């Protein structure tokens, strides 16, 4: 029987770049980078903190986590980028955009401009930028076909933009779309919107693999979960207060556009027929 993709693996690797003794780490993004889905007695932890703690075993670390739940790409550029640059990061993660995908104000040209601007500013100030290629989140959420199809197209457009960021600025790229393990239920919290603790640890391990391949050597982040899961009562309360209203807003926001796109596709097929 094969072992899960996230089973503990021995640490090792050949450095490609000299290691940094003092690692300044800036994190820009939304709820996933903020740590939602990985609760502790001190608040949200998440993959960035788990990764930072692992790096701190062998290096001095300064973590500046500017990620905010609900953030869109424009928020990162206007509200968080200056603080990230001021932190003088050695490593900076730029993982944002799924909230843009889920809104009717979707503007891929503006998103492209904002992401390239953010990555460029970080790179010019000496940061090694870490970005992402997103998976099909509609599979995780179980979104029905009429809504899922336009969202998948948007995610692909967002991934194309991140590919351009990668090419222009030599960013490291966490390719979630290429790893089927991302669809494992164990990696997602009960709301399916955010990684579970194991999911955050898995993400920390994946980013750590990228950094160690670049020569920043440190022990791999642990995949052993330490927090107690939310009780059934806490899950129901969170679903009722936070998740259900959010999903309702997104469906109301996207349904009219999805319906228009379906009508246009149907008319096109009829004309071709």
From TrEMBL:
Entry's Gene Ontology molecular function annotations: hydrolase activity
Hydrolase in keyword set: yes
Ranges in a coiled coil: none
Domain SGNH hydrolase-type esterase: from-to ranges: 27-201
ATP-binding is among the record's keywords: no
Record-linked SUPFAM superfamilies: SGNH hydrolase
Keywords: Hydrolase
InterPro entries in UniProt: GDSL_Rv0518-like, SGNH_hydro, SGNH_hydro_sf
Pfam family, one: Lipase_GDSL_2
PANTHER family: GDSL-LIKE LIPASE/ACYLHYDROLASE, PUTATIVE (AFU_ORTHOLOGUE AFUA_2G00820)-RELATED (PTHR43784), GDSL-LIKE LIPASE_ACYLHYDROLASE, PUTATIVE (AFU_ORTHOLOGUE AFUA_2G00820)-RELATED (PTHR43784:SF2)
UniProt protein name: SGNH/GDSL hydrolase family protein
Lineage of the species this protein comes from: Bacteria, Bacillati, Actinomycetota, Actinomycetes, Propionibacteriales
